[in-house]
Amino acid sequence: MRATGRATTDPAAQDKSKPTNRRYPVKTWLSLAGGAVLALSAANASAQDMLRIGTEGAYPPWNYTEANGELAGFEVDLGNAMCEKMNVTCEFVAQDWDGIIPALMNGRYDAIMAGMSITDERRERISFSTGYVTDPAYFLAPKSSPLQDAETLDQVKAAIDGMTVGVQGSTIHQNFIDEYLAGMVDLKLYDTQENMELDLTAGRIDAALADYAAWRAFFEKSDGAEFDIFGPKLTGSDYPVFGEGVGVGLRQEDDELLEKINAALAALKEDGTITVLSNQYFGYDITMF
Q1: 8, 21, 73, 110: which has the fewest Cβ within 10 Å?
Q2: Which CATH architecture fits 47-134+244-282?
Q3: What number is the average pLDDT over the span 246-255?
Q4: How crowded is residue 186: how many other Cβ atoms within 10 Å of its Cβ?
């Protein structure tokens, strides 16, 4: 609660004509100055001991929100392991995907771990750590759909022409559709993976595009049993729009933090932690070496 205004009993404060400047003994000034230095040092130490990480909390198994409101997932566990290597404490902050980069730049948190692919477009605004994992993308449609017969990208283009395709907005998946299927499909954008899945199961879209890990999580739901992936495996090596794997996003001026995070990630690759977490959450190893 904020302190409320109260009447002062200081005569100098009551009489506006009297000067309020006071002379303090030298020892008092030294004490005040010393206290200010200690307070500033404590604040700096506190900032150095805490790493705030922004994540979406809505893209399982990368990151998601438990029923009790707690953030969880592969990147939450990886982030905590990374912070342990750095001898700092992690604090995760939930942030909608559309605002995740602006919130970083505005200082709401210090880093992003949200299944964010490293792309040249994003590098214009932020820096990235070395990639820690990479996961291919796939199209998905009902098992009964004629799209299931499409294996190559050319076959996908021929079969999907005129259909409605969903992707999460401001993602590499949207960029892929814009580059390779522009004018061929009716593109529908979603704020979360979950909302896209709801429209898939309701038949409001014909197909969707996302990381394979996201589809594996969908398959574990009751509605997911009626769907399957189709078309080619889509990776950055074949389609540069997919980027260079997933990395930690940081402000461009935070060079020292970037160096520390890269060192921590290298150690976690070396000791097998990322492989263990990858197998735990994805069912296979997607570690980048």
Answers
A1: 21
A2: 3-Layer(aba) Sandwich (3.40)
A3: 98
A4: 11
